[in-house]
Design brief:
The protein is of the alpha+beta class. The chain has 2 domains: about 80 residues, no CATH class; about 160 residues. Helices cover about 25% and strands about 25% of the residues. A hairpin with a 4-residue loop joins strand 5 and strand 6.
């Protein structure tokens, strides 16, 4: 759901000049059934002063200008708009007829590339998407025994072949909006009343994961880049070591675990995981 807006924005931003074909199907009609403006299927609504299909005499809507004002090029093969005169009460009106709607044909790869650039093309990534960046780093770092399984209702972000679960929390000092001081790192570690699993909802109070990885990007100057793994520090904490609180600060986490770089993360996770397995075996 988070990414859907970026996909729709990407489709809307692709230029008409990138179309592979134009299909003009519907006949040009007049009155209330007149052809709708180009790109209505993208959810755009054109209203006065630039978007009404019917307007006073002397100021007909121009299809070319309408499309250009939306940031699109009008296809060279499109039919030029025509103006029809008719009476509405005692007043003369002009109505511009638009060419029938064109069919956009973009590949999945083009849409994905456009959406990815909009979401992750800048050094600072918005809060709702930054977790994806951090999880991607961790997924590339961990061994193949860990599966990246985060989703809308997933009980954890990674799961080991032996069933161990790992939860990722992240925070950054520099935000996408303007701030005069670094953002304070606070992480949500609240226990839940249950969790979603393949078989359905499991009623069980507590934290679903056995391992937490807290990631923090402390760079606050203009070199801050949330996509750069070298700028992140990772703190691996077994769940049983966490206090019974809903939120925890970075300073408190640093008292529980030493930070490691992305290069040392996999070894640290394996170390903590092995300790948990040993504790279980006792």
């Amino acid at each position: 759901m988070i990414f859907r807006r970026y996909v729709l924005d990407a489709v809307a931003a692709l230029p008409l000049s990138a179309m592979r074909r134009y299909q003009y199907r519907a006949p040009v009609k007049s009155g209330s059934g007149a052809s709708k403006p180009l790109l209505k299927h993208l959810g755009r609504r054109y209203r006065r002063p630039g978007g009404m299909r019917v307007c006073p005499t002397g100021s007909p809507v121009k299809a070319h200008a309408l499309v250009a004002s939306a940031g699109f090029e009008h296809p060279a093969s499109a039919v030029a708009p025509r103006t029809i005169r008719g009476a509405t009460g005692s007043r003369m009106h002009q109505q511009t007829q638009f060419p029938p709607r064109a069919v956009l044909v973009f590949s999945v790869a083009e849409v994905v590339a456009k959406a990815a650039d909009a979401a992750f093309g800048k050094p600072l990534v918005t809060n709702v998407l930054r977790a994806q960046i951090v999880e991607a780093m961790i997924a590339l770092s961990l061994t193949s025994h860990w599966q990246w399984c985060s989703a809308d209702y997933s009980p954890c972000d990674f799961q080991h072949d032996d069933g161990l679960r790992l939860e990722v929390k992240q925070s950054a000092a520099r935000q996408t909006w303007s701030t005069d001081k670094p953002s304070k790192a606070i992480f949500d570690v609240a226990s839940r009343t249950g969790r979603n699993e393949a078989a359905g909802w499991v009623e069980e109070q507590g934290r679903a994961a056995q391992i937490y990885v807290f990631a923090h990007n402390s760079t606050f100057d203009d070199t801050a880049d949330h996509r750069d793994p070298a700028q992140w520090q990772f703190y691996v904490v077994p769940t049983y070591a966490l206090p019974d609180v809903k939120q925890i600060s970075l300073s408190r986490i640093m008292a529980l675990s030493d930070g490691v770089s992305i290069a040392a993360l996999a070894d640290k996770v394996d170390e903590v995981a092995q300790h948990i397995r040993t504790e279980r075996a006792v």
